[in-house]
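Write out the 3D structure for:
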Amino acid sequence: MQSGNKGYLFLVVVLALAALSGWLYKQPAYDYKFGLDIKGGVRLTYKVKELTEDQRRNLPVIMDNLQTIMSGRASASLGVVEGNVQRKGEDEMIVELPNFTDAEMARQTMSSTASIKLYHAKNVVTERIKFRDYVIAGRDDATTDPVQTFSKRNDPQNRILKPGDPEYLNMIKGWTLILEGTDLAKAMVEIGPNNSVTPMFNFSSEGARKLEAWSRQFSGQQENVAFVLDGKVLNIAPVQRDAILSDHAVLTGQFTASYANNLVSLLNAGALPVELEETSSQVVDPTIGKFALSQMITAGIAAFAFTALFLIIYYFFPGFVALIALCLYVLFTITAMKMLNATFSLAAIAGFILSVGMAVDANILVFERVKEEMRDGRSLMTAVELGFKRALPAIIDSNACTILTSLVLMQLGQGPVKGFATTLVIGVAISLFTAVTITRSLLVFFVSSGIVKSEKLFAAERGWFGEKLEATAHEKPLQVVNNSRRYFMISLLTIIPGLIFVFLGGLKPNVEFQGGFEAVYKLQAGATTPEVVKNLETAGFKGSNAKITTDKGEKYVAITVPPSDKLKSNDPGAYNTLAQAAGVVTKLPVTSITSVGPAVQQESIRNAILAVIISSALIVFYLALRFGLSMGGFHNGLKFGMSAILALVHDIFVVLGVAAIMGFFAGWELSALFITSMLTVIGFSVHDTIVIFDRIRENLRKPMKGEDFGNLCNRSITQSIARSINTSMTVIVTLLILVIMGTPTIDLKFFCVVMLTGILSGTYSSIFNAAPILYLWDRRIARTRGEEHSLIAEATAEMNRLRAQAMQTQVASGPSTASGANRGYSQVKRRDSAIDRSKSEIDD
C-alpha cells in the first residue's frame, strides 16, 4: 500500500509539473525568439581597434559600457524591439537586429563613435583669408548623409575630396579641436519654418567655457567652425562677425527629419568608449525563413508521429508510457527554451526535432533490457527494476558525451551553431529526466499497483531487429572480432571514394572559412551551377562557387567569392555587380548578403579545429575515467576511450568524403554548421559505442567459465546489436524526414545529410570497428606485458578485491539486527509489496 501511495503521489507531481509548464508556456513574457534566418535582419560583428595601455587594463569595464551603449542604440536609434548585442571573446561584439534590413543605417548607427567634435578649420579658405590649402566644395550628392566635401585650392584637376580619402583625413588633422563628445550635455531637434529640422546642441559648463574662450580669441575674424562625426564633416560655416559662442550651437543646412532625429538620439545615447572595426556582416531577407519555419514544423510533426508509432507498435504498453514521457519532454523543453530566452533559429529547430528522436534512446535501451530480463525468467516487476538499473550506466555515459560536445560548440560557436548546441544541451538534460524518472516511475506504478499484470503487454516476443540474436548470444555469438580484417576492409572501401573527391578539390570552404562574400539571389530560369561559376570566373572573380536550390517553385543561387577588391562589404552596389557578373536576375531581391573579413575567417578555422580536438579529448578522458573505475585503473579506461575515438576516425573520413562528393557535383560548402553536424556525429557515434562497451564492462565482471576476451566481445556485441539498431533507427528516420521535407536551405540540408551519413556510418563502426580495436589493443598488451595485464585478468582481480573488501566489511559490522529472527510478529506476517519482492530478487 505504501508503494501504491508513492505511485499516486508521483502521478500528482507529474501532473503538477505538466500544468506548471503549460501555464508558463502560455505566458506572454515568454514568447518565441526566432533567429535572423527566420525573421530576417542584420547581423554585424565588430572588433575593438587599437587600444591604449590604460584602455587595455580596463578592457572588461570598457566592453560592459560598450555593450550597454550599443544595446541602447539598437532600441532607441533603430527602434529594434528584439535587438541583441552580445560579447564575443575579449574584444568583440555581435549585433543582431531582427526585422531590420537597412544594413547601411545599422552600420552607421552601431559603429559610429557618436562623439561629435567641434573644430576650428584653420586650413580652409574664408572670406578674409584666401590663400589657405582647402576650399569648401559643397554637399556630397552621392550620399543621403549631409557630408561636406572639399578640394585643394592649388589642385589643377580640382579633385573633390570625400570621407575615406587620405587627403580628406589629412585636412582634418590640420584643424584645432575646440570641443568633443564629453562636452555635450544634450542634443535636440528644433522644428523651423515649413517643418524644417535643425539639430541643436547644448554644452556642459566646461564645454561652454571652452567654446566661449575660443570665440573671444578669434572674435571678428569669421573663422570656419566644423562639426565632425566619425571622420565626416557634417557642417562647416564661418562664425558671424562679433558673435560670442557659449553654451549651444546648431547645425545649419538641409537635414531630413529621420537623419536629424537619428543623429540626436545617437548622440544622447552616449559616445562609444573605443573605435570599432567591422569584421563580418550578414543581411537576411525573411522570405525564405518564414516558409522554412512552416516546412520544419511539418517535418517535426511527421518525425514525432513516426517515433510515436514505433514506440507503441514495437514496445506496446511500455511504448505508450514512453510516449507520455516524450510528450512531456516536448512541453518541458520548449517551455525551458522560451524561459531561457533561447533563439529558435532554423538550426536550433532542427536540433530540437533531432533531440526528440534522440530522447527515446534511453527508453529503447531500458525496454530492450527489460525484454532481455523477462526472457531470462525474471518476474515482471524484477525485469522492470533490473532493466532501468542495468541500462542506466550506458544512458548516463552516452548522454554525457553528447553534452560534452555540445558544450564545446556553445563555447566556440556563434549564431546558428550556438543555438543548435544550446537546444541539444537543454534537450538531453530534460530527456534524461523524462526517460529515467518519469518513464520509470510510471512503469513501476502501473506494475506494482497491479494495473498491468500481463507480460504480453510488454511485447517481449517482438524481435524484428536482432533480438533473436541476443537470445542465443551465449551459445552462438556473432563472430565480429575474429573477422575484424573483413570489417576493417569494408570500412576502408567506404572511405576511398570520398577521398578521391577530396583530392579532386571537392571540399569547398564557405565564406566563413575562406573570407570574402556570399550573396543569395533569385535565379533566372535555365541557369545551371557550371554556367554561373563560368560567368564569375570570366568576370574576374577567381575561385568562386555557386549553389542552386529550389524552394516553392523558385530557384535560388548562393554565390561565394573570395576576398576581392571589386567588392566592399559596405557598398550595396557591389552586390549588383556580382549578380550581373554571375548572370542572375538583378531586379529580383537579394535574399541574403554575407561578408567575412580575415579576422573572422581565421577565427572560424581555429575554432573548428579546436572544437574537434577538445571534444575528442574530453570524450577520451571521460570514458577513461568512467570505465577505469571498475576495470582496474585509469589505464584500462583509456583503452575504452581511445578505442571509441579510433573507431570515430572511420566516421569522420566517411563524412568528409560525402562532403567532397557533394561539393564536387553540387557545390555544397563546408560551414560552421558542417562542423556542428560532424561533432554531433561524434557524440552520437560514441553513444552507440558506449552501449556495446558498457555490456563488455558488465560481462567482464562476470565472464563465462574459461571465456577469452574475444568471445566476451563477440557476446557483448550480439547482446547489444538490437538496441544499437533501434536507437539509431529513430534518429535516421527523423533525419530522412528533415532532408526530404524540412530543409529548404542548402546549408541546412547539408547539415542533415552529413548527420544522416555520419550516424549510419557510426552505427556500423560502433558494432564492427570499436570492439575489434579494443580487442586488438588488449591482445597486443597481453603479448608484450603478459596475460596478467589483459582486461579480463585485471577486471577479475578488481572484482575479487571488491568482494574481499565487502566480506571484511560484513564481518566487521556483525550480525544484522534487522534479521527475520528479530522481527516482530506483525512484521513477519506483513505481505511484501511487488517492489520489495523485486528488490529481493535483484539482490539475490
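The longest helix spans residues 746-785.
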